[in-house]
Amino acid sequence: MKFSDMGLHPRVLEALIPLGYEQPTPIQEQAIPHVLNGRDVMGIAQTGTGKTAAFSLPIVHHLAHNLMHGRAVPRVLVLTPTRELAAQIDDNVKAYAKNVKVRTALIFGGVSQHKQVAQIRKGADVLVATPGRLLDLCNQGLLSLEWIEFLVLDEADTMLDMGFIHDIKRVIAMLPEKRQSLFFSATMPDSIVKLSKTILTDPIRVEVARVSSAAETVDQRMLFVSQGAKRDLLVQILNQPDVETALVFTRTKYGADKVVRYLKKHDIRGEAIHGNKSQPQRDKAMNAFRKGKIKVLVATDIAARGIDVEGVSHVINFEIPNISETYVHRIGRTGRAGREGVAISMVNEGDERNHMRDILKLIKRDVPLDKDHQWHLDLPAITSDSKTHKVPKEDGDNSQAQQRQGGSKKGRGGRGPQGQKSQRPKRDSNRNNDSRPARQGERRESPNGTTQNEGSRNGSGEGNRSSRPGGNRKWKNQTKFRGPKPQGDRT
């Protein structure tokens, strides 16, 4: 089947020609006909399977056949978890609607709201938004969702992991009951199924087999190293002449910054990209990496959503992900378009051995163990049928190192072996997983760096009003816009 056989608007098909779109991907082939027929769709597909086009093309087709007279109002809402992914979707929609009078507005936090408000006031048919800033603008009376005809939830599982469940429910409460809803998620746990039942009406389920293997051009390697020696090993790897550009993945924002500081001490240029970075900082780091001005980009999985960089020679798992599919997505960022790439995984002596075993079960292949480095740990090999590794109660390699030095256990009176008073290190508030939802009443860092109180959250999500320049500015009340008048098909 070709796109020309799917009944899409001629102007939409015309826009696909310069993009090189000829045959739809499996998710597109299955989902587009149902969306064109007006059905709600539950799509299960990983990032990179072409699901943006699966929901965008039929939506642009609908807008092309149902143009409105006068100022455009939001008729399509696409909710997505991160700024980078929102920007990527916005670019794609603009490309598909190149020959149709469809306007888009990109709404996310971390930047001033003024340009976004100006976009909305000029008129926009499609809103691509992160939940927090969208709610913030609605609460200020600057945006109305009463004309929404299509709701798209993209990367739903990631949004739930990031703690956006309450924001999503607030947004849905503002939408018209009569609408077409499209729901896409990489996984389908019980929480996602429960949420989908509150959003979708008699949905068609479309599922693409989960990604379980990377390209054959990716050379995968595994190294055993203690957590404390990982940074030294990373420096050694990055100094090898065959490493042209490297994407390094860490589990936390704090860890990413720590790695970058250590690399700079050893004269290796790199930048971190994660939720605590402002949008200009993230854009600057991405552009420098794409242009080759920096050799290393250190990222968390959440921040890396929507990043598409060609020519990455190495992907380094500084920390092993606890979700097996995440490993496949990480290493899939190298070895693209038939090029060769290298994926290196640093496995510590703790839980990461269990995570790596689960990954091998998923990809159904063994990853060679590279012992050719001075920090190699002599531990049993990891295979898909390895036994579960029991992690000692002591937390991390710091306590083990202290024990080797005889300095971790307290003596009488709470003093160490040298008679000094033992102190517990202060816990860094940033040292948490990007995807960990906050507890009730807990102050935490949002995925894009703004401090939030989950118990009294104002719905600002990715852009807290109190931290925004001019946040107390009073906007002039304008006469309420009563809605567009149908004009019919404009061909």
List the helices and strands and how they pair.
Layout: H1 10-16, H2 26-36, E1 41-44, H3 51-65, E2 67-69, E3 76-79, H4 83-96, E4 104-107, H5 114-122, E5 126-129, H6 131-139, E6 150-153, H7 156-161, H8 165-173, E7 180-185, H9 190-199, E8 204-207, E9 218-224, H10 230-238, E10 246-250, H11 253-265, E11 270-273, H12 279-290, E12 296-300, H13 301-304, E13 314-317, H14 324-331, E14 341-347, H15 352-363, H16 396-404, E15 443-445, E16 451-453, E17 485-488
Parallel strand pairs: 1-7, 1-8, 3-5, 3-6, 4-5, 6-7, 9-14, 10-12, 10-13, 11-12, 13-14
Antiparallel strand pairs: 2-17, 15-16
Structure description:
- The chain is of the alpha/beta class.
- It folds into two domains: 3-210, P-loop containing nucleotide triphosphate hydrolases (Rossmann fold); 218-363, P-loop containing nucleotide triphosphate hydrolases (Rossmann fold).
- It has helices at 10-16, 26-36, 51-65, 83-96, 114-122, 131-139, 156-161, 165-173, 190-199, 230-238, 253-265, 279-290, 301-304, 324-331, 352-363, 396-404, and strands spanning 41-44, 67-69, 76-79, 104-107, 126-129, 150-153, 180-185, 204-207, 218-224, 246-250, 270-273, 296-300, 314-317, 341-347, 443-445, 451-453, 485-488.
- A seven-stranded parallel beta sheet has the order 4-5-3-6-7-1-8, sandwiched between helices.
- Strand 13 (314-317), helix 14 and strand 14 form a beta-alpha-beta unit.
- The radius of gyration is 25 Å and the shape is globular.
- Residues 395-470 have low confidence and may be disordered.
